[in-house]
Design brief:
globular
């Protein structure tokens, strides 16, 4: 039997979470009913919903949507599937589960779109959707990790539409459906990008947590070829790695490869954000490092460590700073986190979502654990992206 968790209504938003326990196959109808019980009473005039489901419910996504739409009267829905989903203080992995967040917004303040396969023409058309009679300023999007030119697709969509984007890449061991007023699924092929764009009537504050802490000073790539870093600050790249990680890890570079990553600061960014990329190869004989990126000569970089303590500290900092920038208590929140976070980083007990609840209070929250996270116009890894709806 599905169990529901209800989240307090706040300023026109209401959230609910439901899961079916440890059953191998999900009782979608029981979960749908539990969600509706948790959402009752709905905010007056509710017309937009976010819906995330675990991949155990991927095949039942359309049935779940139909039930919720008919019972709630909420017409517009967006969302996707994740190996894990997130609610206020709760995360669900390895079990059929769903989380819903519904809100009442001015009808002309948002526009659901999708799917888009990209290209400047398609991205520019998003600007012409003009929610509220103005160009979109903010968007929540979901992307298929199989999509070709995914990094370029996100950048083009953000630039040509004029919207600040947040969201994530669908994650599943099954199919990768997206929800944009209907469930879109393409077996064996990429869907592209879908979501909802908002006009300036919706005020938001966003924050990004890297989950990493710097090791050593900021440095510069002085030799590179393809995805290889040959030299850093004029020295063999491996020698600089040994200097920055410390004597213990320098003795066992195989261990360092799983603990240490490379951070590339984002040019023109005033918040200290950087892209974290894996070390994929270490060649002690030639002194080369292989990274999951194509670095340029002259590019700034530093080594970073990723561990639970660093991730917890950075998450707490991000929540505090985002709330301060918001200036008021949020009405609702969305959270898109990396699959490598959650229980895989913090351990059992929904530690990551509990930290968010401790900072935000009983604000309705919905989200999922993604194959990659989207903030502004970039694709990140190992991050958590928080959106506060004000």
């Amino acid at each position: 039997m599905a169990e529901a968790a209800r989240e307090t209504a706040a300023g026109g938003f209401k959230g609910a979470h439901a899961e079916a326990g440890t059953a191998a196959s999900g009782d979608w109808a029981g979960i749908a009913k539990a969600l509706m019980d948790g959402l009752d009473p709905l905010p007056e005039g509710a017309n937009l919903g976010f819906l995330y489901v675990t991949d155990a419910l991927a095949e039942d996504f359309s049935s779940l949507l139909t039930f919720l739409r008919e019972r709630s009267g909420v017409e517009h829905w967006v969302g996707t599937v994740g190996l894990g989903i997130a609610a206020s203080g709760v995360e669900s992995f390895g079990t059929p589960a769903a989380v819903a967040l519904v809100g009442a917004l001015p009808p002309d303040s948002f526009h659901v779109f999708g799917p888009s396969q990209g290209g400047l023409a398609a991205a520019s058309a998003l600007r012409n959707l003009r929610p509220g009679g103005t160009g979109p300023v903010f968007g929540v999007v979901h992307a298929d990790p199989r999509s070709p030119r995914l990094v370029e697709l996100l950048a083009e969509t953000a630039e040509a539409s004029g919207a600040f984007l947040v969201g994530g890449l669908s994650s599943s061991e099954r199919e990768l459906p997206q929800l944009a007023d209907r469930v879109i699924s393409q077996v064996g092929g990429a869907i592209g990008l879908s979501g909802v764009l908002f006009g300036p009537q919706l005020q938001v504050a966003t924050g990004l947590t890297q989950g990493c802490a710097p090791l050593g000073p900021m440095r510069r790539v002085t030799g590179a070829q393809g995805n290889l870093i040959l030299e850093i600050d004029g020295q063999p790249a491996v020698e600089v790695l040994k200097q920055d990680v410390g004597e213990l890890l320098a003795r066992d570079l195989r261990r360092a490869a799983g603990y240490v990553h490379v951070g590339f600061p984002i040019a023109g960014n005033d918040t200290g954000d950087y892209l974290v990329r894996n070390l994929v190869a270490i060649d002690p004989e030639r002194g080369f490092l292989g990274v999951a990126e194509r670095p340029d000569v002259g590019q700034a970089m530093h080594f970073v460590r990723r561990d639970p303590a660093a991730a917890r500290s950075d998450l707490e900092r991000m929540v505090t700073e985002t709330l301060a920038r918001a200036g008021s208590r949020p009405r609702a929140a969305l959270y898109h986190s990396c699959l490598a976070r959650g229980p895989n980083l913090f351990g059992p007990g929904a530690v990551e979502l509990s930290i968010l609840r401790d900072g935000l209070g009983d604000v309705p929250l919905a989200g999922f654990f993604a194959n990659g996270e989207i903030s502004h116009d970039r694709l990140y890894t190992y991050t958590g992206v928080l959106t506060l709806i004000l």
